[in-house]
Amino acid sequence: xxEQMTTPGNDEINAKLDASEARVDARLANVDTSVKTGFxxxxxxxxxxxxxxxxQMGQTHAEMEKMRADMHKxxxxxxKWVVGFGLASIGAIFTVSKMTEKTQAEAHMxxxxxxxxxxxxxxxxxxxxxxxxx
Length: 134
What we know:
Blueprint: H1 10-100, H2 104-108
């Protein structure tokens, strides 16, 4: 025999709707909790990332300051060497010029004349001059 279908009453419909609404509310609460937990984890991860980046930037800044100080020291060393070499060169030039400079007395002196002597044996005797004719 075929069973006869019964029409559900308002109470049954309301009970099914309430049960369905409760399941939807439970799922929404679960999704809401998951979303809130996920955002909290993201905030924590981003806070850690920001802290790590700030630490890295601090280290980079310290390294750059050290490098800048080293470069400044190197430049100062180069300047010292250039100035020292320049002063030494000027001193050497001054010393050489003083060594080669003639005194005022030496500047007015004339070089002694060059005298060439011929040995007498090598010169032929002069012939006597002819007597004058009278």
